[in-house]
Amino acid sequence: MVAAMWTALIALLLIGGVCARRGVAEARGLDKLVVLSNVFFAMPLAVFGAEHLSGNAGIAGLVPDYMPWRMFWVYFVGVALVAAALSIATRIQVEWSGLLFGVMMFLFVAMLHFPGALSEPGNRNGWVIVFRETSFGAGGWALAAGAMAAGRVRTKSTLATVIRVVIGLAAVFFGVQHFLHPVNAPGVPLQKVMPEWIPGRVIVGYLTGAVELVCGAGILIGKKTRTMASYLGAWIVLLVVVIYGPILIDSTRDPSSAVQAEGLNYFTDTLLFAGAILGLAGATPRSD
User: Fold this and answer.
1) For 184, phi and psi rounded to 5 degrees?
2) What is the spatial distance between Cα 47 and Cα 130, in angstroms, rounded to a whole number?
3) Could you give the C-alpha distances from 253 to 91, 171, 200, 250, 261, in angstroms and in order?
4) What is the pLDDT of residue 127?
5) Contact in structure between 242 and 187 (CB atoms under 8 Å)
6) SS3 for 213-236, per residue?
């Protein structure tokens, strides 16, 4: 399973990098990261797809009891994720792959994560997952909106409003969580705690909380949305490199495949959040 996940990560990095190279060369400043939003978004989808196709029993356990053929749905979602990753990385039919991925994520929230959070309202981790998954769905819609023809102004405007509100709310919620739990892994503050060997981890937590609160609030109220999304996306990418990169490398030293898969999942989860935010920046007119 872990080998398949690594293969998917590297393959989509190469494919997406080749397809984005011209845009990166032509862009300036933070727009270079905005151009890479498709790559950042596609790599995690491929990793999660490979994990599904490896027949992870833990994933099958997430399928609701009322749904028959549990493993069928695990493999079906795996194929869908890999297909979406390839479409987004190569920028082929992103309007459809982004829209459909977003619909799938919102269905997951409605069927799995939101009921789970309501069943344990005091469990903050459940609510973090709800906001994380909705932001992923909004990120897919952001990439779709950015790929739509210029003439579809009304559709793009409606999507942009939904995307902005969802991602802005997620960023603000995560920012508050970082002030309450500053040593938790930054960006998407799930239950994992930053290792003690990371220097200044409390400072990293508070600083991330401040960035998410300020930029999230700006995105939510529509104040300089592209700028706020670009700054926030850049910060999350920086966290992926300087925090989750070392955690990922450290996890490879553990003989347990579960620990190695966890390291990959945290790395790609946060990268996907960055891709969603930068996708919002890319879908927002420069005049904003």
Assistant:
1) -70, 150
2) 20
3) 35, 32, 23, 6, 12
4) 96
5) no
6) HHHHHHHHHCCCHHHHHHHHHHHH
Task: Tell me the one-letter amino acid at 128.
Answer: V
Q: Quick check: helix, strand or coil at residue 125? A: helix
- C-alpha distance across the termini of the chain, in Å: 44
Tell me what pLDDT residue 59 has: 78
pLDDT at 269 over 80: yes
Token pair for 231: 């700054």
Better-scored residue on pLDDT, 258 or 60: 258
Q: How far is CA 156 from CA 71, 135, 143, 162, 220, in A?
A: 36, 17, 11, 10, 17
Question: Which residues, other chains included, contact 114 with Cβ-Cβ below 8 Å and sequence gap of 6+?
Answer: 130
Around 8, how many Cα atoms within 13 Å sit in the side-chain half-sphere?
32
**Residues ≥6 apart with Cβ < 8 Å to 175:** 208, 209, 210, 211, 212, 213, 214, 216
Instruction: Record the pTM.
Output: 0.94
